[in-house]
Write a structure and sequence with these properties.
Length: 133
Amino acid sequence: MKDSSNNRIRLDKWLKIARIFKTRTQASHACEERRVKVNGEVAKSAKTIKIGDKIAVKFNQRYRELEVLGISFKSVSIKEARELYREISNQVITEEEMGPPKGLKRPKSAKTFKYSGRPTKKERRSLVKIRGY
């Protein structure tokens, strides 16, 4: 565990180095989807974290709370990565707590159009046939 005099690092980098996520891209997507909180506030991937911060991460069916114990600026082994944080809680989320699936939140309208905006040439020809012009 190598610490620099700076002792601050971007959230998405730390999540990748600590092996909470496999890639930095996955970590930044989780931040964009508002599934990561730092000290109780939703955090963007560029937020700088320091030792002592509390991070809450929501996965598909899990919720993990971590405390930052160390900062490393390079990828480290699994053993050293586990020393970078302390697990406060690791909970499994039930389907009832998760709520309804995303597709059910918004009701589908009865009439859905294939395209929005101006119709294509093919669509205009079919409209002419239907209307009988």
